[in-house]
Amino acid sequence: MVLSKLVVNIYTVLLEVGLWFMLVIGLIGGWAYHGFLGAVFGLITAAISGAVVFGAFLVLADIRNRLKAIEARQ
């Protein structure tokens, strides 16, 4: 039981790190391609792509956290 909770917590952290990494790569790639405006466009594009790729998993993690909070209140 402890190991499965640890794996889920590590997975949640890896999702968040992956999302931040995607944003940084989008920012750097956009900057290298077109300067400041490219960086803004790269950041926006990376944020939308990250929401599509990682969003469903982060929503599931949020549901899990909310269920734990409801369980703790009872």
Give a structural overview.
There is one protein chain. This protein has 74 residues and is mainly alpha-helical. The protein is 97% helix and 0% strand. The longest helix has 72 residues, at 2-73.
Classify the beta-strand content into a percent band. Answer: under 5%
Which structural category fits the helices and strands?
mainly alpha
Q: SSE order in H/E notation?
A: H
Q: Share of helix among residues?
A: over 70%
Low-pLDDT runs of 5+ residues are none
Strand elements, count: 0
Calculate Rg over CA atoms. Answer: 16 Å
What distance separates the N and C termini?
21 Å
* Molecular shape: elongated
Which structural traits does this protein have?
single chain, 74 residues, mainly alpha
In short:
With 74 residues, this protein is mainly alpha-helical. The protein is built from one helix and no strands.
Can you lay out the helices and strands and say which pair or pack?
Layout lengths: L1 H72 L1
